[in-house]
Amino acid sequence: MSRNKKESTKKKLPVCKRIRQFAGYAWRCKPSYFAVYLLQIIINGGTPFINIIFPAYIIDELVGARRIERIILYALLTVGINALCGILRDLLNISMEKYADRFERHMDLIISEKCVTMDFQHTEDKKVLEQLEKAKTGMSWYSGGIHGILSAVGRILQHLVTLLGVVVILATGMPWLLLVYGISIVLDALVTAQIQKVDMKAFQNLAKVNQIFSYVFWELQDIRFGKDIRLYGAEPLMEEKGDYYNRWMSREWRNQAMKNLPFNECSSILNVLRNAVVILLIGIKALRKQITLGDFTMYYNAGNTFRDSMYGIVYGVQDLYQKLNYANEFLMFMEYPDAVYHGTQQVPQQSVHTIEFKNVSFSYPGSNVSVLKNINVVLHPGEHISIVGLNGAGKTTFIKLLCRLYDPTEGQILLDGMDIREIVYEEYVKLLSVVFQDFQLFAFTARENVTLTESRAKAEDVRKNEEKLVEEFGEKYFDFKAVSEKPQDAVFDKVIEQAGLTDTLGDLKYGADTFIKQSFDEEGTDLSGGQQQKLAIARALYKDAPVVILDEPTAALDPIAEYEIYRQFNTLVGGKTAIYISHRLSSCQFCDIIYVFVDGEIRETGTHEELVKLEQGFYAKMFEAQAQYYR
């Protein structure tokens, strides 16, 4: 696989293979689905014969011998078997709805897992984000997901069961009807194919607007936008955006409907002509007394059932193919190639590591602008490094390359002399603890945010809910052996103290096991920006990786808290290699060496004392400009 290959191929797998793939997803999720599935095919495929055969017997009895007991028997059999099949169908449909919901959540989880495990570079790639939108809509609105696809296959099979039965009935008495219906169905299929072409083209056109539509009508409901919308009077903008994209969607749907209108009218005309020819052929035989009135009813119903079955099979195949085309977008997303080469070599077996940037240059995918140019840096074990520069100088991009979120466009990054692209990706990132300036916390407990493992101690309402789940479903599904036990973790307590959060968490009702935010727990807490940043620092320290990277770690802290972090900087990172990015140059005094980035290049290198003495030096000017605000 090419290391720089980003785009998924447009190759489609054969229909049977795609069906097997989705059936495999269903089997792994819920094997019992297929027992209900098979029973549904048998009942739905056999039920039409009740209303083909028994009415014919009833009519012949009414115009013939008129035996009351026979009429009652046939009527009871017709009503009774229909009622029984109806009850079974309803029960099976309820079961299928449950399976469909289970499959939908299962596939959402699979897509989510792909999103969080795919290479970071893809998350900033517009083409990949569009493919994600196609995958989500293709597996929900348009294909109906796993159940929608397998149901389409099931309908084809049940129509095939019905078709085989009515062919036997018609072939023995009215073979000409087979030809009439056959021609009609071929014409219907041609018309349907044109309709589906229009629908598929509309789906492709709507992929982009669906993404924007979803953002405007769903993402902007996020309460995080509430303050900005209100304080800046953005309501008119939101309304205009919503109205604009709503009209765009409506226009696309209207165009689709207008293009399909001639084909729909053509289909209606074909249905009228077919019915006229069928009634004429059967009527002539009835008038000539070649068949009974009951036979007339049976052949007419059999003919309609033949038509419905054939049309169901043809339409079903087209519908299945269309659903598979929509769902294929999901397969393409799942098989999106890696953006970076994941390597096969293990991390060198040694306690300390040297990292070297060797002639590294980088441009973001799709851009010819060099963000980094010929960077040469050696990060020695235990060295505390500060990276400074104006916004856009390339500092964060430098960190992204170090973390292998992207690969260099030119040059190499070496770990103990080995190109990091050759190292198993998952093993390499274990060496790094990173706090980005746009870090994210989860709406779980403070402890879980730091340890990234499930906490046993929970808020009271959560514990009660878990106990109910255990009582209802058994411990087979819920293993909460110590729901009331408070975890003992000396490392956790230490990093919380180092980050200055001991008092903050100690004042909470459930301590470190209090939920961050109130998304899932009313008794959750909303930490301040500075407290959240400290929690992110604690998470990085808890990982205990040999390389610690702090990107603007004190940006949200007040001056006193910032001073405490700086004062304990050496204690926090200890003997680890530490890379520190900050616009506040006072922090650089705690570092062994400073790299000054300007326009993607390293312009100056040295200690704080050395750089402030450089006349007309970039660092000296920056430090002087900041220092005057503290005089």
Q: Say what the CATH topology of the largest domain is.
A: ABC transporter transmembrane region fold
Low-confidence stretches: 1-10, 476-485
What is the makeup of the main sheet? 6 strands, mixed
Distance between the termini: 58 Å
Question: Largest sheet, order of strands side by side?
Answer: 6-7-8-3-9-10
The overall strand count is: 10
Structural class: alpha/beta
CATH class of the largest domain: Mainly Alpha
Q: How many helix segments?
A: 22
- How many discrete domains? 2
Q: Under the CATH scheme, which architecture of the largest domain would be assigned? A: Up-down Bundle
Query: Which percent range fits the helix content?
Result: 55-70%
The overall average pLDDT, rounded, is: 81
Could you name the CATH homologous superfamily of the largest domain? ABC transporter type 1, transmembrane domain
Q: Provide the gyration radius in Å.
A: 34 Å
Strand content: 5-15%
Give the CA-based shape: elongated
Q: What does this protein look like?
A:
With 631 residues, the chain is α/β, with parallel strands linked by helices. The protein has 2 domains: 15-334, ABC transporter transmembrane region fold, CATH 1.20.1560; 345-441 and 527-631, Rossmann fold. The chain is 60% helix and 9% strand. It is built from 22 helices and 10 strands. It has helices at residues 15-29, 33-46, 50-63, 68-117, 120-123, 126-142, 145-173, 175-217, 226-231, 235-287, 293-334, 395-402, 425-428, 446-451, 460-473, 490-498, 502-506, 529-543, 559-567, 569-573, 608-612, 618-627, and strands spanning 355-363, 370-379, 384-388, 410-415, 418-419, 432-435, 547-551, 577-581, 593-598, 601-606. It has a 6-stranded mixed β-sheet with strand order 6-7-8-3-9-10. A 4-stranded antiparallel β-sheet has the order 2-1-4-5, covered by helices on one side. Helix 2 packs antiparallel against helix 4, helix 6 (126-142) crosses helix 8 and helix 8 runs antiparallel to helix 10 (235-287). The chain starts with 14 loop residues before the first helix and ends with a helix. Mean pLDDT is 81; it is low at 1-10 and 476-485.
